[in-house]
Structure formats: C-alpha cells, structure tokens
Model the fold of this input.
Amino acid sequence: MTGATGNVGRHLVDLLLQAGEQVRAISRNPERAGLPGDVEVVRADMSRAEDLRPALKGVDRAFLFPAAGQAHGFLSEAAKAGLGHVVLLSALAVTMRQAGALGRVHAEHEQAVAGSGLPWTFLRPGAFMANDLRWAPGIRDDGVVRAPFAQAATAPVDERDIAAVAARMLLDDGHAGKAYELSGPASLTTAERVRILGEVLGRDLRLEELTPAQARAQMITHTPEVVVDSVLTLFASFVGRTADVSPAVRELTGGAPHTYADWATRNAAAFR
Ligand SMILES: NC(=O)c1ccc[n+]([C@@H]2O[C@H](COP(=O)([O-])OP(=O)(O)OC[C@H]3O[C@@H](n4cnc5c(N)ncnc54)[C@H](OP(=O)(O)O)[C@@H]3O)[C@@H](O)[C@H]2O)c1
Done:
C-alpha cells in the first residue's frame, strides 16, 4: 500500500486487515505512521527506486497513490516484481474537459499505469468529504466558513467509501481494465454542506464567500499555482448545476454510500 497514512489509505488498511490480508505499507516516516500493529510498515519514498524495490518484493497486489506525481518509478519496480494487479487512486477530474492541469496530471498517471503492462483498475473519485476538514479552524475559532463559490455543487464522497471500493478491487477478481467514477449519494452546494455541518454540530455557521482572487491567494500558499487555477476554473463551472451521482459505491460494495451528515457526525470532533 502506498498512501496508507492518507485519508483513504487508513481506512483501506483496516478493511484489508479485517479481510485477513497481509498488508505492507510504505511511509516516509514509519515511526509516525500510526498504523495498526499487524501492518508491516516499510520506510520508502515514492521518488526513490532503491526504497521501492525491497518494499515491492513478494507483493502481489498494490494500491497506488502516486504521491507527488511519482508513478513511473513505482510502476517499473512493480513490473519487475511481477505484481498481479494495481489499483490506482485517480480522480473524476480526468473525465472533465474544464479540469485543465488537474485532469491532465491524473490522466498521465492513468496512462503510465495502463502502459506498464500490469493489470489495473482506476478509481476516479470526485471531491472528498475530507476536503471540508480545512474549514475546521475557522469553525472552531468563530463559526465562520470562508470558501469560494457558495453555489458550486459536487457530490462529495466519503473517504471510507473510496476505501471500501478499493478493498473490493484488491480482493475480488474481475475488475482488471475497468475505471470507476465514485461519488457520494447527493449533489450538494458549498452552502448546503455548511448548513448540514451546522445542524450536526448544533451551531449556527456562517458562510463567508471568498472571491476567486481571495481563494487563489490562500491556496497558492500550499498548492502549485497551475493546480489552484484549474481547481478554481473547475469549481466556477460547478456553480448553478447539479452534480452527477454515481451508483458505483453501492454496486461495487453492496452498501449505501455514506451521506454528508454521516461524515460530519463521524468527524465532528475536528470541528469542535
Ligand atoms: N481531495 C480530493 O477531493 C480528491 C479528489 C479526487 C482525487 N484525489 C486524489 O487523492 C489523492 C489524495 O489521497 P488522500 O487524501 O488519501 O491522501 P493524503 O491524505 O493527502 O495522504 C498523503 C499520503 O501520501 C503519502 N506520501 C506523500 N508523499 C509521499 C512520497 N514522496 N513518498 C511516499 N509516500 C508519500 C503520505 O505518506 P507518508 O506521509 O506516511 O509518507 C500519505 O499516506 C491525490 O492523488 C488526489 O489528487 C483527491
């Protein structure tokens, strides 16, 4: 497992262990990984082939999160190790013309995986519900969410559902060569998510809509400019529309996707 300490990865680790699988995870900081004791945690950086070679030895299937755009090194080592299946965490952005650089980055990852000769499955989630954790400091401080595009709609997906689908892809046969678009159960605008979060927290939250320029100035402090610009263009295109809801989580896992209120309830402590 790559990305095992991430939003999706932690849930996937738990599901694989519950299924009785032997799990090896890479992390740049094993001592801080905080993964269950049954997981073999190997120190490895995706950009270093010399780390990946021993990490991939004896592995038969992998969950690939190409951190920092590092798919090629991983794939060439995975091909040498004879992996039987790679499940790639891609993004719905690959299907969206207006996604610009964001879509291209993920499309390049998909092409690299497809070109590796390894059997693959692509998971293409839309916006993660976990993205709203970035609202936590503002909510804790003064009950204000500062975000652009109040009326932009997405169908955000709970990271637990992405992990549940990834687990099925790794455990079951029959998904090689397939790409699945993943969403949550409902189209919600930013303003609707703030309202639901307030209901769950029992607080009156106020949405202070940032201009795209204000949002850009904040985002470029932690994200490459080219990605920020494509994210803002994409979200501008989501204003006034209803987001598509995919049936894939239910079809692939047999369970209903978690609602935003479920997610907010489970993560309420972060906002308090
Ligand atoms: N957020 C969204 O709305 C959204 C939507 C669609 C797709 N996606 C895609 O989903 C992915 C993010 O998934 P996530 O939220 O689960 O991840 P995350 O929480 O951001 O976690 C980052 C993970 O990457 C690992 N990592 C980072 N750099 C690394 C490196 N150089 N070598 C090895 N490991 C490295 C970290 O491991 P250590 O720190 O332990 O090394 C950690 O496990 C991205 O590819 C994103 O484009 C996101």
In short: The longest helix spans residues 100-115. The chain has twelve helices and ten strands.
